[in-house]
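Notes, Module 5: Reading structure tokens.

Key idea: the token line is not a picture. It is a compressed description, and you learn to read it the same way you learned to read a sequence, by spotting repeated patterns. We will look at two proteins. The first is printed below with its tokens.
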Amino acid sequence: MDSRKMENPDLDIRYTLPDRIEEWSQGAVQDNGHDYVDEEGHILAVWLKTEDAEGWWPKIVELLKTEKFEDNDLSQSAQVLVSETPNAELAGCRQVWPE
């Protein structure tokens, strides 16, 4: 998520977003940490884990489009990436949304 594209760049989102996704998915998608992924500290990555990334990412995108998180429409500032490898670095991930 790029804080420069957020209406309310509240750092609590690093907890509230994965907590909501875990609750909404009934535990099928879980929090796996967060980190800044740019040198300037504007882009916050929230890592999630699941047994079925290909099946869950489209559902997560729909959640991002329909709910606000800390008063932010994340469909305007988030990207969704998936990886076959647990805990992959960004270079080992592929962006699936936006296309």
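Here is the second protein, with the sequence above and the tokens below, as before.
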Amino acid sequence: MLKVKLTALAGAAGALAALVALPTPAQAHIPLPVPCSATALRTAINQANTFPGPDTLFLALGCTYNLTAADHPGNGLPAITSDINVIGNGSTIRRQSAAAFRILQVTGPGGRLTLNNLTVSEGLAFNAGGGGIAANSGTTLTLNSTTVTKNRGGSGTDGGGIVSGGTLIVRNSTVTYNYSSENGGGIQSYGTATISGSTIAGNTARSDGGGIDGSNATLTVTNSNITDNAAQFDAGGINAYNLTGTVTDTLIRGNVSADGAGGGVTTRGSSNLTLLRTTVFANRSFGDGGGGLANRGATLTVRDSPVTRNSAPVNTPGGIFNESGTVNLTGTTTVTDNIFTNCAPTPIGTCTD
């Protein structure tokens, strides 16, 4: 009888173990500390890529990870192919080499990269966009309290700091002093971009969209600063091409279009963009006009927003230039004190000068 009971008990225990299996080491994903060396960082990324599910890498406090050679073709670090969360601890990852390579790339399907409290700097993509970070279609890139600075895209490509074809989330971060030989000096998005509590400043594009360029994309910007960016042609601040989006509670200031239109913002193609409680101040166009805003055939709605002290060449509108399409001025929006005129052709809503 005792033997029968023990056998039954053993069988029950085996069944319970089968139902409630303990996680294997690969499933547990113990957070991985990364010593202050580029080699250690590459090893940690490769290890994280081999495990299914999310992994967390803890970088050394205040370390500068200097990359002196490409690890993966075109990239200083291994491509991100899994779900990796990087706790930066105030560290910097930078290219320290004459050779051209970007810093990071996220590839699909399923690549997810989250950067926290980290600086990504001085990447130089070779014949490709995204000097700092490139995120392919189907991926997710998230920046939390992270800086992307002094990166350059390759010749004839978009996205000096970041190029994203998937989902891009930028929170409480800065994208500054990046350069693109085409569009999107700071950020180039072909997917869905959400930017909040962040600063996009001092970026340059040799074509359109000094700060941000969104093409066939969705863009949401809230509580942010788009300042002191420059484009050779349209849109020193934000260039919207076939884009749907909103910009809310944001400052668009001091952006420059050298030879085109829309020092602050340009909307083109089938874009439908709304500015809500957003200040458009002291932007400049040295080309076609629209120092603050320019619309080239799209739909632009400006609600409860001041457009003021923007400038453009003589006999062109410093505030708003509506080349074609629809501009709606609603709520408490004002268009005042722009040089040389406030808007053209008039009237645009309540703007008659």
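Summary for the second protein:
- Residues 2-19 form the longest helix (18 residues).
- Helices lie at 2-19, 25-28, 38-50.
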